[in-house]
Specification:
183 residues, five-stranded mixed β-sheet, 4 helices, 9 strands, globular
Length: 183
Amino acid sequence: MTGPTVAEIHLPAGQFYFGSGQVRVHTVLGTCVAIAVWHPIKRIGGICHYLLPARAAGGSADGTPPGLYADQVMGLFADALRDTKTLAREYVVKVAGGGHMFPDQLLDTDCRDGGCTSARRAGCLSVGCKNICAARVLLRGAGYSIASEHVGGQGSRRVIFELWSGDVWIKRGSAMPGGRVAA
């Protein structure tokens, strides 16, 4: 006897998925961030893969994916919660990504040598660091509590989110070598 068929979904950058059932969502992150939310009672959840913390002033939304920016993604999550009549505080939240993909090009020697910490991240100019900070601020502002994180550091991540269980699996990749940027 075989079990239920699992639907495999690849989530590209700038996309959002919310649903339930035997669904496994895969995405690959570099400096981008994925936020996975899961309701343990209703067994529903969603995941996003955003590229940047916010749209630049005056930027147009025409032709851009619905979840390209962290601030847009929070609206997508809010719509899903409204549709399912659930509240942010009822969800288990997991955040991943924001890695340094080219550590040799980091101007900050401490970050380049792996010393990136939460305290340093707030003032960092790296896109990955800005994405991590945006996730934390926006989630907190929307009433979510982060249950776990796998953020920062060097290299990529492959993220797998299983909607039936709420499990999130991470596989680390390596950073790409590159020439140093002159300081």
